[in-house]
Amino acid sequence: MSKISKVTHWIDGALYQSASDRFGDVHESATGEKCAEVVMATTEDVDVAVKSAHAAFPAWSRTPVLRRARVMFRLKELIERDKDEIAALITKEHGKVLHDAAGSVQRGLEVVEFACGIPHLIRGDYSNQVGSGVDTYSMRQALGVCVGITPFNFPAMVPLWMFPLAIACGNTFILKASEKDPSCSLKWAELLKEAGLPDGVFNVIQGDKVAVNALLNDERVAAVSFVGSTPVAQHVYSTAAANGKRVQALGGAKNHLVIMPDADMEQASDALLGAAYGSAGERCMAISAAVTVGDAAEPLLAKLLPKIAKLKVGPGTNNDNDMGPLITAEHRDKVRSYIDLGEQEGAKLLVDGRSHDIVTSPGYFLGPTLFDHVTSDMRVYREEIFGPVLTLTRTKTFDEAVQLINDHEFGNGTAIFTRDGDSAREFAAEIQVGMVGVNVPIPVPLAFHSFGGWKRSIFGDMAIYGMEGVRFYTRLKTVTSRWPTGIRAGADFSMPVM
Ligand code: NAD
């Protein structure tokens, strides 16, 4: 029997066989071997999925909120039951190390736990007697068919940022996962069915821009959540918004970590190591730019360089490894070309991932890379590389470091390492970035807060999950009601006048 699995759509509670003749190959990134074939949706496939989600909406949105919450409670148990299997699937297709994959499932699961509280989260407000005999109350109602378009780097966590809340709020949902590691998407469909979700409430479409564009242009789609690169986020945002849809589109990043001269260099170097090279740098909250202030660079490098030398790079199936491969050969080559570029631009290459022993392995590996003396005009500083490449920029003062970050086009995450409360407080207040860490390198907010960057790291007004997520997936209705004198006063035989 072939080891190559066929990944297809999930529509109306079952696998859906498409007539499409376009397929994509999925590779095990640690070996380079083809492990799956994913169908690329046609516009007809998208139409069938939207029809299903559209038809399921009236009944699901009227399902009592407690029953919708119970589906989330069951989903939580099922994800807990299958978490090792899900983590193994992520490691197989994406490549990240098992313990890291398991951590990402846990962070996604926390959004399901948050969604279990939907009866409380979605409650409206009530004001009694706002006028004589007049009361006002508000409620949040579901939007309709919601779409989620997700990137390759978190095949579990990012879809879980979206569909649990969308569904708990009473919407139906279509997931268009990354075609590079699509198998998790079907796992969500199976678990939701087992959790008792009615058919048609959750559908999965596999594919590429053909599927995305069909979804963005379908008038039955009410809202779009997108997470991916900035150029595609911008396209998704402008198309969906022009078509009158609600849209949140989260894009790329260049996250800075500022090291003040008073920082604990042991802690700062540990933090940099994990944040720059964990998941091979393929995290939207990865730290890709270290910024030292004053004379912090030398003591930091004295701690950091030996730690980089000891990093264990290898297949993600070995939990002893710190860093796995990149997602595809093409992406590995792109990251490698940035290392070439950094040298040409005059940055000082302190650690060269191109010459790491691991690169001779058959998978899509690259070793950790560190550039020193990187300046703000270099492309290796300005552009998102999305690989295990860390740049170090030396600044003289705190103000110079803050200005450097504020001038960057991206504003997803950032962090400062210091022992000084005043520097930390000023940094949090002045920095033009959506998520800020103080002695915390990757400040991803927990599920009961919300996730979102600033500047060209997000298009649209609302962040994802948490209360922002509840607001994104619902719209507000406010009712003002007055009950004129009725049966209590008995019949009235005179002409009614105001
Ligand atoms: P990508 O933009 O290439 O793909 C994201 C999704 O868009 C995929 O489902 C893909 O099929 C689809 N897509 C790709 N090209 C398209 C096109 N031309 N038209 C319509 N749809 C298209 O992103 P990726 O490479 O999968 O993921 C990496 C990127 O995602 C990085 O830039 C990373 O920073 C970003 N990211 C951001 C966040 C965040 O929260 N801000 C989180 C994770 C990843």
Describe this protein's structure.
The N and C termini lie far apart (81 Å). The protein has 15 helices and 23 strands. Helix content is 38%, strand content 22%. The protein is α/β, with parallel strands linked by helices and 498 residues long. The chain has 2 domains: 271 residues, Aldehyde Dehydrogenase, Chain A, domain 1 (3-Layer(aba) Sandwich); 184 residues, Aldehyde Dehydrogenase, Chain A, domain 2 (3-Layer(aba) Sandwich). The structure holds nicotinamide-adenine-dinucleotide.
Summarize the structure.
This protein has helices at residues 43-62, 65-93, 98-115, 118-121, 157-168, 183-194, 209-216, 230-242, 265-277, 297-310, 329-345, 379-382, 398-407, 421-430, 466-472, and strands at 5-7, 9-11, 14-16, 23-27, 34-39, 126-131, 134-142, 145-149, 172-176, 202-204, 221-227, 246-250, 255-259, 287-293, 348-351, 369-372, 389-395, 410-411, 413-417, 435-438, 454-455, 458-459, 474-482. With 498 residues, it is α/β, with parallel strands linked by helices. Strands 15-16-17-14-13-19-20 form a 7-stranded mixed beta sheet, sandwiched between helices.
Provide the descriptors you would attach to this structure in a database record.
alpha/beta, 2 domains, 23 strands, Aldehyde Dehydrogenase, Chain A, domain 2, Aldehyde Dehydrogenase, Chain A, domain 1, 7-stranded mixed sheet, globular, 38% helix, 498 residues, single chain, binds nicotinamide-adenine-dinucleotide
